[in-house]
Design a protein that fits this description.
With 123 residues, the chain is mainly beta. A hairpin with a 4-residue loop joins strand 7 and strand 8.
């Protein structure tokens, strides 16, 4: 069983920075893609940033130039560096990791979510 543990959320003033981390543990065979999503109160969950093993990354237009996603493949960890934060960035941030896990029945697809971490940006 794979577990994702997120950390790094908190309260920050507008213009400040935070760094989120998401570490995956378990019988992971391979991570193919990792991403961060967020959900603000009363809104749907939206993609913030995503990175694939082919070094392809994509960002929501609202965070381009301010947020950077990175991965440490050896640690199965994905990070989100958030700079120049704005009040509209306030949300619960979720990480997602996709790939392949090793089970007693063989290799199975992985699509796991973290528990979410709250980011609050005050004006």
């Amino acid at each position: 069983q794979v577990q994702l543990v997120e950390s790094g959320g908190g309260l920050v003033q507008a213009g400040g920075s935070l760094r989120l981390s998401c570490a995956a543990s378990g019988s992971i065979f391979r991570i193919d893609a990792a991403g961060w999503y967020r959900q603000a109160p009363g809104k749907q969950r939206e993609l913030v940033a995503r990175s694939t093993s082919g070094s392809s990354t994509n960002y929501a237009d609202s965070v381009k130039g301010r947020f950077t996603i990175s991965r440490d493949n050896a640690k199965n960890t994905v990070y989100l560096q958030m700079n120049s934060l704005k009040p509209e960035d306030t949300a619960v941030y979720y990480c997602n990791q996709q790939g392949v896990v090793l089970t007693p029945q063989g290799l199975k697809p992985l699509d796991a979510w973290g528990q979410g971490t709250l980011v609050t940006v005050s004006s």
